[in-house]
Amino acid sequence: MFAHKTLIPMKYVNSLAVIILLLGAFATSSCTKMKKDKLDETWRLIRVDEDSTVSWYELWQFEGEMVYMVTRPAGGTELDTLYNAEYSVKSGLSKTIVTFQECPNTTYNGDWEVLTLNKDILVMLNRTDGEFIYREFVKE
């Protein structure tokens, strides 16, 4: 005759929504920490065809909240610091963004999308006002 419907009380739905939001926030913050831990290394910039402006030996050293961009002059043995900047990492479900701030070379300031980050390779892309800076690195 009549179908009996079982309704879930609204308080359970609200509790479930809060739990799902908390789990999502925890997963996102854990992912950000994992990406930052993976990034906190020394990476050697390599020359790539897409950006032929890279013709020197350059390292990016991520340490704590700072990144140091250093170079070895031709024929030299010492490393010279080109720039340093503060950086932060935001990682979501589909992408990771590294934000540089306070870099004396303002070209580097802003958001860099991490295209690849594994134990050996780092690839980042900065898109600003229709321009882009593409950088590939190998772990030093």
TrEMBL record:
Protein's name according to its UniProt entry: Lipocalin-like domain-containing protein
Organism for this UniProt entry: bioreactor metagenome
Lineage: unclassified sequences, metagenomes, ecological metagenomes
